[in-house]
Write a structure and sequence with these properties.
The complex is a heterodimer of chains A (109) and B (113). Chain A is mainly β and 109 residues long. Chain A has no helices and 11 strands. With 113 residues, chain B is mainly beta. Chain B has strands at 4-6, 10-13, 19-25, 31-38, 42-49, 56-57, 65-70, 73-78, 87-94, 103-104, 108-112. The chains are: A mainly beta (109), B mainly beta (113). The interface between A and B is medium-sized, with 21 and 22 residues.
Chain lengths: 109, 113
């Protein structure tokens, strides 16, 4: 099946810093989502972004489907950004999402 | 807003018990999914359903079954719980018809002793 790799696995930031999280995938995809899992386990939708660039406040995402990667940018990080960020992809041949193992982000005041 | 609810946040069961995990969505979504999440393994798909009474196996269906009698409700059943089924269980739904954005419930943390 398709492989989804996220980097870095762990990230510690000072409040106010910027960061870039990366998601690489091994095959063509129809759909891609970014999620934030908060400390209580809830997965929150950030972006549904099979291609192109989207922005939502301090967060933005870019997917380059032809090169098989997506990037999540977090600017001016806040302590509430802490948690695990997951990338999930739906392959071109198939109808289910496959998740990466996540990037664990800790923002310290 | 899409709302996906799960019947319990925390559940403790004994080995061999039959366990039911319930998931309800309120947005008339066609597709529903059950995942389990374990440290270092990310989320893995157990079963999914495209319609009432329809089900498809995901990557790790062994030891589980599902039921979808009504469009809004998708149940995960552990016929005889075992300790290796201790995990976080997450339900999700998506609209269907080519729109596959998934929305997740809050999760059920199941411990089997």
């Amino acid at each position: 099946g398709i492989q989804v790799e996220q980097s870095p696995p762990d990230l510690i930031l000072q409040e106010g810093a910027n960061s870039t999280l990366r998601c690489n995938f091994s095959d063509s995809v129809n759909n891609l989502q970014w999620f934030h899992q908060n400390p209580w386990g809830q997965l929150i939708n950030l972006f549904y972004i099979p291609s192109g660039t989207k922005q939502n406040g301090r967060l933005s995402a870019t997917t380059v489907a032809t090169e098989r990667y997506s990037l999540l940018y977090i600017s001016s990080s806040q302590t509430t950004d802490s948690g695990v960020y997951f990338c999930a992809v739906e392959p071109g041949t198939g109808n289910q999402f496959y998740f990466g193992t996540g990037t664990s982000l800790t923002v310290i005041p | 807003d899409v709302k996906v609810t799960q019947s319990s946040r925390y559940l403790v069961k004994r080995t061999g018990e039959k366990v039911f995990l319930e998931c309800v969505q309120d947005m008339d979504h066609e597709n529903m999914f059950w995942y389990r999440q374990d440290p270092g393994l990310g989320l893995r798909l157990i079963y999914f359903s495209y319609d009432v009474k329809m089900k498809e196996k995901g990557d790790i269906p062994e030891g589980y079954s599902v039921s979808r009698e009504k469009k809004e409700r998708f149940s995960l059943i552990l016929e005889s719980a075992s300790t290796n089924q201790t995990s976080m269980y997450l339900c999700a739904s998506s609209l269907g018809g080519g729109v596959h954005e998934q929305y997740f419930g809050p999760g059920t943390r199941l411990t089997v002793t």
